[in-house]
Amino acid sequence: MRMVDIIAKKRDGEPLTKEEIDFVVEGYTKDDIPDYQVSSLMMAIFFNDMNDAERADLTMAMVASGDRIDLSEIDGVKVDKHSTGGVGDTTTLVLAPLVAALGVPVAKMSGRGLGHTGGTIDKLEAVEGFHVEITEREFIDIVNRDKVAVIGQSGNLTPADKKLYALRDVTATVNSIPLIASSIMSKKIAAGADAIVLDVKVGDGAFMKTEEDAAELAKAMVTIGNDVGRRTMAIISSMEEPLGRAIGNALEVQEAIETLKGEGPEDLTELSLELGSQMAVLGGAAETLEEAREKLQGVIDDGSALEKFKVFLRNQGGDASIVDDVSRLPQAEFKFEVESKTSGYVEEIGSEAMGIASSMLGAGRQTKDDEIDLAVGLMLNKKVGDRVEAGESLVTIHSNTEDVEAVKTKVLENYKIGGDEKDIPLIRKMITE
Ligand code: URA
Ligand code: CA
User: Which GO terms describe its cellular component (predicted)?
Assistant: First the structure.
């Protein structure tokens, strides 16, 4: 087989065979095929797309390029959730105990944050003692006993995706539906998921700027999942503003606790219930999404979801007393209010900008080795659609330095206040098959 013939075939709009796709992915992973040939193929795919069979083959070729996590010793259907990248997205912290409280195993491999979105592990580490450095044996035993555990990324998962993603990044071929969809799905499958729930974000801060594009990406991933034997469902949700009110590690833990008590922000609660319902159906805890939602509401109301969160923290060394006394979480030394200059309605809150503002305080990292400050971040006092008067606080800054002028400016520049009482629907679409 010759790489040049494969490039020519895709250039001419013909579908590639499984053997050809395996040849490319294996050869590139082993450095047998040079960057320039693979980048040429990526561009041909960008223009000529891939059919469903090619997408499934590419996904599984990337899964086969590295290690795979074996969760077969865990009883039940292992459902994983993936979000395409949200700011202040506290849903994983809520979903893990919430769904586990229904008996669905949540065996989550998670990462740390980079750039303007926070990582689940960083957030959990705001709880004193909590750690994800557990052995695979402990991980499996905990999930079998208590249904929920989080482990740090380990092993050499999907090296082909890492190389391809880096190449696409510098060859203007990231924004291709078949390439994004196979990239995301390969990582979830390599991490051991039997079933997958996807939260595809749409809007300013997201990869997909329009609902149409987001729907196409979601549908592509759902089709891949189902074609390779992993039942997959998706939600398309708005990123026209950050999710919930808290952005920052300890602040988001507190927000998750409130949500598990049934006292959380409306949007975070809604998204958690929707995603949780899909997870519960795929995990076999309910027949329909409606039944799942009722059961989830039940474990919030009777306190068992909150109790599950305590067990989860305790199992991994965390101080579970923070759940009943959130003042034991890391606290920032200073609080500053960002006051609105004008009166009107909040029409838009730049999600990415709020993520960056929170990072500027030290809540996120710019490079992989940065230390983060678990206590700092932003609390949004006003959300899209809220009425605000001049002088009222839009955001409370939690900081460990007194110099927050640049952060204040960033927040003010990205709160759009106008005359329209806008209502941005959070959940745009559900794709269940
Ligand atoms: N996120 C991924 O993991 N892969 C892509 O290709 C794009 C976004
Ligand atoms: Ca949040």
Answer: cytosol
